[in-house]
Automatic annotation (TrEMBL):
Subunit structure: Homodimer.
Gene name, Swiss-Prot/TrEMBL: folD
InterPro entries, alphabetized: Aminoacid_DH-like_N_sf, NAD(P)-bd_dom_sf, THF_DH/CycHdrlase, THF_DH/CycHdrlase_cat_dom, THF_DH/CycHdrlase_CS, THF_DH/CycHdrlase_NAD-bd_dom
Protein name per UniProt: Bifunctional protein FolD
GO annotation, cellular component aspect: cytosol
Family: Belongs to the tetrahydrofolate dehydrogenase/cyclohydrolase family.
Entry-linked NCBIfam families: PRK10792.1, PRK14186.1, PRK14188.1
Pathway given in the UniProt record: One-carbon metabolism; tetrahydrofolate interconversion
Any coiled-coil regions, as ranges: none
Length: 297
């Protein structure tokens, strides 16, 4: 079998187009422009690239982008004061504090200071609790993107065996809750899981979020399974060059799977698209308007 490639780039472009259309309608019909505030503390190069890209894509869909770049030595109290200001600002519907924060800050305290209704990353403990209890939450962007791709690929997910490899608060756990919400039978695997290959072999849906290049090989995959590779790993490509690979060994897995996301060009582009979708959702909720269809969990 040769797997169908799930084109995350095209999928993300479609989501951004749908968001842009609904932003235009909000502006024309209600005079409302959704606004996303992104806060970056320090000089982490990867974070700077992400923040720049988020700002550009926010403007491209017609939203307001508010960027706050603070020096590394900013105190937690000053950051909390900025978060409080953004919480109170009616032009700001979504707030994202770029992680990781400098070591002298307590990330949990900062994230939990964000108004849960504006927590477009879905990391606030209230949103975690809402998701965990099957209530309306702001859902973390990467797992939301995975869910959207799975629904588009497979339709009804009900009754499917899903294995999520990784139990982080950012990807693994919320992914498992979302799959459970869609009535999959869900297993969460992690570094202490025994005989991981056999656990993965029973899955109709595999979501790999580990951070280990090519760990999941084709002989772990049930024929016809749908494989979502969240991993982003930079490896040595020789001659002083590097390249990005996922947690799944693409060549062998794509011989067996029914469908698979590539790295790059799979889950990655979906994360920012879902951030914009979440900002639109937050804006609609804040204004008592119907939520955008097909852009939430
Ligand atoms: P974390 O490091 O927070 O979590 C990794 C998880 O993998 C842990 O639960 C860990 O288990 C588990 N794990 C580690 N080694 C093994 C192993 N040998 N067998 C089974 N499980 C193992 O990572 P994240 O969840 O933040 O990210 C995972 C990957 O996804 C990374 O490559 C990251 O770059 C990528 N990512 C991609 C995004 C995107 O936009 N596409 C967004 C976010 C992340 P334990 O808990 O027992 O330690």
């Amino acid at each position: 079998m040769t797997a169908e490639i799930i084109d995350g780039k095209a999928f993300a472009a479609d989501i951004r187009a749908r968001v842009a259309e609904q932003v235009a309608q909000l502006k024309a019909g209600h005079g409302i422009t959704p606004g996303l505030a992104v806060v970056l503390v320090g000089e982490d190069p990867a974070s700077q690239v992400y923040v720049k890209s988020k700002g550009r894509k926010t403007v491209e869909v017609g939203m307001e982008s508010f960027e706050h770049r603070l020096p590394e030595e900013t105190t937690e109290a000053d950051l909390l004061a900025l978060v409080a200001k953004l919480n109170a600002d009616p032009a700001v519907h979504g707030i994202l504090v770029q992680l990781p924060l400098p070591k002298h800050m307590n990330s949990d305290a900062v994230i939990n200071a964000i108004d849960p209704a504006k927590d477009v990353d879905g990391f606030h403990v209230s949103n975690v609790g809402l998701l965990g209890t099957g209530q309306k939450a702001m859902v973390p962007c990467t797992p939301l993107g995975c869910l959207m791709m799975l629904r588009a690929q497979l339709g009804d997910l009900s009754g499917k065996e899903a294995v999520v490899i990784g139990r982080s608060n950012i990807v693994g756990k919320p992914m498992a809750h979302l799959l459970l919400g869609d009535s999959c039978t869900v297993s969460i695997a992690h570094s202490r899981t025994r005989d991981l290959a056999n656990v993965v072999r029973r899955a109709d849906i595999v979501v790999a979020a580990v951070g280990r290049p090519g760990m999941v090989t084709g002989d772990w995959i049930k024929p016809g399974a749908t494989v979502i590779d969240v991993g982003i790993n930079r490896i040595d490509a020789g001659e002083g060059k590097t390249r990005l690979v996922g947690d799944v060994e693409f060549d062998s897995a794509s011989e067996v799977a029914g469908a698979i996301t590539p790295v790059p060009g799979g889950v990655g582009p979906m994360t920012i698209a879902c951030l914009l979708a979440n900002t639109l959702t937050a804006c609609c909720r804040a204004n008592g308007l119907p939520e955008p269809e097909g852009l939430t969990a």
